[in-house]
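The following block was generated as part of the benchmark described in Methods. Ligand: alpha-D-galactopyranose.
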Amino acid sequence: MIVFDQENRIFTLHTLNTTYQMKADRYHMLLHTYYGSRIDDCDLSSLIRCEGRSFSPNPDEAGSNRDYSLDVMPQEYSTCGVGDFRLPSIELELPNGSHTADLRYEGFRLEKGKYTLEGLPGFYCAGDEAETLVILLKDFAAQVTVELYYGVFEAVDLITRAVRVVNQGREKVRICRCESLCLDFLRSDLDMITFNGHHLMERCLDRGPLRPGIQSVGSVRGTSSHQHNPFVMLCDRDADEDMGLCYGVMLLYSGNFEAAVECSQYENSRLVMGIHPYHFCWTLNSGEAFTAPEAAMVCSTGGFGQMSRQYHRAIRAHLIRDPYNGRRKPVLVNNWEATYFDFTADSLVGIAREAAALGIELFVMDDGWFGSRNDDNSGLGDWQVNQKKLPGGLKALVPRIKALGMKFGIWMEPEMVNEDSDLYRAHPDWVLHVPGRAPSRGRGQLVLDFSREDVRDCIYGQMKEVLASAEISYIKWDMNRSLTDVWSAGLPARQQGEVYHRYVLGVYDLLERLHHDYPHILIEGCCGGGGRFDGGMLYYTPQIWCSDDSDAIDRLRIQYGTSFCYPVCTMGAHVSAVPNEQNGRVTPLKTRGIVAMSGAFGYEMDLGKCTAEEKREIGSQVESFKTHYELLHHGDYYRLGSPFQDNAYTAWEQVSPDRREAIVNVVLGCTHAAPPFRTLRLKGLHPAYQYQIDGSDALYSGETLMKAGYPLPQMQGDYPAFQFCLKAVG
Ligand code: GLA
């Protein structure tokens, strides 16, 4: 609900459990007054106190009033060069060379439903599930308007934000920074939580107190990156899974980003998040507009768990698009770790045949099927079937897979090219490169200039031919290097600061075309695993390969960190062979199955090499996944034990919305002789319900299971795991 108090010019956004407020003050500055637990019928501007502070300048309108300074008051969208020395939200270069921005409140409008952003991903709603507030700010000297967009999703406690800058003047201006969100707090006794890592170990949680000065994470790799995720949290120092105030902020963007928090001199703090200012400079001609990507905020008063469940609900219902929001996605088998580049049509059909017999529904042919691709040095850019490897092409192969009752999926890496390819030989200028400088290679490949429409059209044309040649139900859209040598032959020198962003817009453009033309095709995002796992990609690709590390024990950490923002159904997770290809670890098949099932589930191994007993076990895993799919993927997610803190076990639980069913998953990190007896306290159950566990006669009340716990069985061997189901009776 959006409430406007006209007399005091106060805007209050209420969701079910939270309130967000701002006020246009007497000098037309837009101040941020509050974000937190819901307060009805409130004017929270009295929380903002002013007192003269040396070296904090006063705007002209304040006259002799030295108490009023932008430098100490919480701003809704901070400016620069005019009296607030903290992190700016916007920086404009005006025709006279100045780098200032001075924004004053000019008006607002309310819209039904949720705004959309042209060419950019965003949360969406049906009908009146959301409302929009647009606040207009203006820099009168620059003749630039800044529109602040707010999407209020009341039922799921989510507020989205975006910013549109319009040049209403006659001369061009340059935008050097344009954050998607600014969030000021009248306190700095907060912890910052970020999700960091590297290729093969993404999104590991890090937590630490805010310190004076600026703390930030970000990416200048052209992708949102393996190293830092565009999702960050701020929380009470003592907040934990179950209690405390915490804020989550996610950026729906797949390129360079920065999330920075400044803890300022008077113990206030400011979080800004948006496109990374490195090499970002956008020229805005007279009459043109620039739109910064969307950010989405959640505030929880019930700790991290509640915040995660709010994000999960919102992402499932309002970000993942039809037809995959809510629909079960097929269990897949992928041949990558089974064959790498070394396969034939017969060996692929062999894997598919074994898989089909075990209930697996989709066969995915990974890298190596096209051009001259027999290793990772050639072929990217030539999206035609390698007839030597696959005689008769997809026309011959796909019907063989379909005859097994399976769907067919294919791997592609549309943004890349190898120098050893027909595409590169014909169009060497189509890659990102700086004239006079030999571009760096990554995995032996160069990056196509996706900021250019002609380049995208050519790739899309090739993709369409592939899709027309056979019935294809799934595409794995991969992207296997960071961007370097970012310069485009398609833009003049003064616009080169637009290339990183135009590249991302180009990727979104092609993904949108695919979604529009082939809505039934399931696209799985991938970037050397989880190097582009963000809300932007999820709008186009309902699942993303979580990590190239498929080891179940490493995956506990990766999937745990990922779960803070992103729901289980988005995390591509496969059972692979042991010893694991990435770290050599041997884990039981059962453990691998339990971990992968809490993800977009599949297998990535040569099932023909499994023993009869292993095949039986895989068959029953697939069956169990299908039976419990609704609970596993759409249940409310509870973290019960962290793989970072407790070496003894990692546990998590999914509970049905009506709390009548739950599934509990436990993996032991290490086993000892004569181990202690442990109990596991469950969460999210109905205290008064009586639950039956795995169909046995004994009944436990929800209260008992949550307060006293469930006795964990003693387990032996390396990395054992178990899963049990609870059902309320009566
Ligand atoms: C990336 C992906 C893998 C696989 C290979 C193929 O590394 O993350 O899953 O598809 O590329 O080259």
